[in-house]
């Protein structure tokens, strides 16, 4: 089987994750070597990084976001969420470019962290296993912890990042414990097999695990009564980071909740 046959048979999830991973690795290598080059007088790379990232995301959007050849309803939903996620991502990155230049924020790591968020969001859109789901959530959270403390010269930003890290770590423990209890009840990590077994078994571990996972997702969304961290983190972070916090993770988590709800009750 040739390369093009493999690409034609591959899902959109694999192509997108592969392209984002390759772009991310090349960006890190390029940024490390060029930014530390004394012969170039330590150039400012954020503007060029942001421009090329916009071009790269637009190419991914137009090339891979309109493949609706599969008739599976879940794939169709994931594909639509992916397309909406890319639109919001491109608009967010475009809106923050001028603000970063006005605030004299010239660290190219901002763009690399942003691509990490996009990569984790793509994984979450098509995640069908609790292990992949948890790892993608943690990848996104680690990038957000750094984003919250991006302006290291501000005490408010440092406080916001510290609070976000503490609350996020506790929330991560709740989610991991919830997935562990669900695995203890069924012995599977795949959502497909999990939904088919939920109606056949009524277990305390299952109920406790689903409750903990729901609490963790509601915390990510900032839904009451798990919203007390929002004010301090949003107020202390850089405005562009606040825009990022208020858009991308909320869209992904809401889509996950909708997908899990309909998948659970359609069994």
Folded structure, characterized:
The chain is an all-alpha fold. It has one domain (3-265). It is built from 11 helices and no strands. Helix 4 runs antiparallel to helix 5, helix 6 runs antiparallel to helix 11 (239-265) and helix 7 runs antiparallel to helix 9. The relative contact order is 0.10.
User: What is the total number of structural domains?
Assistant: 1
DSSP E strands, number: 0
**Low-pLDDT ranges:** 1-13
Mean pLDDT: 77
Radius of gyration: 20 Å
SSE string: HHHHHHHHHHH
- The 3D shape can be described as globular
Structural class label? mainly alpha
How much of the residues is beta strand, in percent? under 5%
What is the count of DSSP helices, taking H or I runs of 4+ residues? 11
- The helix content is over 70%
The N- and C-terminal alpha carbons lie at a distance of 36 Å
Instruction: State the major sheet.
Output: none
Brief descriptors of the model:
267 residues, mainly alpha, 11 helices, globular, disordered N terminus
Summarize the structure.
With about 270 residues, this protein is mainly α. The chain is built from eleven helices and no strands.
Describe the secondary structure blueprint for this structure:
Blueprint: H1 3-9, H2 12-35, H3 46-64, H4 73-102, H5 109-126, H6 130-148, H7 155-186, H8 191-198, H9 204-221, H10 228-236, H11 239-265
Helix pairs in contact: 2-5, 3-4, 3-5, 4-5, 4-11, 5-6, 5-11, 6-7, 6-11, 7-9, 7-10, 9-11
């Amino acid at each position: 089987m040739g390369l093009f046959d493999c690409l034609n048979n591959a899902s959109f999830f694999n192509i997108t994750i592969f392209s984002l991973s390759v772009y991310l690795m090349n960006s890190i290598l390029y940024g490390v070597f060029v930014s530390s080059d004394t012969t170039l007088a330590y150039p400012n790379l954020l503007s060029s990084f942001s421009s090329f990232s916009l071009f790269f995301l637009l190419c991914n959007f137009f090339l891979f976001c309109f493949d609706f050849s599969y008739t599976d309803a879940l794939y169709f939903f994931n594909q639509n969420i992916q397309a909406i996620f890319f639109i919001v991502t491109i608009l967010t990155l475009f809106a923050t470019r001028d603000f970063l230049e006005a605030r004299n924020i010239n660290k190219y790591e901002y763009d690399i962290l942003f691509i990490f968020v996009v990569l984790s969001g793509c994984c979450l859109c098509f995640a069908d296993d609790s292990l992949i789901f948890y790892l993608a959530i943690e990848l996104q959270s680690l990038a957000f912890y750094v984003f919250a403390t991006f302006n290291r010269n501000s005490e408010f930003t440092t406080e916001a990042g510290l609070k976000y890290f503490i609350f996020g770590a506790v929330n991560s423990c709740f989610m991991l414990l919830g997935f562990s209890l669900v695995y203890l009840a069924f012995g599977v990590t795949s959502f497909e097999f999990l939904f088919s077994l939920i109606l056949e078994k009524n277990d305390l571990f299952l109920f406790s695990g689903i409750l903990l996972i729901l609490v963790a997702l509601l915390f990510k969304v900032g839904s009451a009564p798990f919203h007390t961290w929002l004010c301090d983190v949003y107020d202390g972070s850089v405005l562009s980071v606040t825009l990022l916090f208020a858009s991308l993770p909320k869209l992904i988590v809401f889509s996950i909740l909708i997908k899990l709800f309909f998948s659970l009750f359609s069994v």
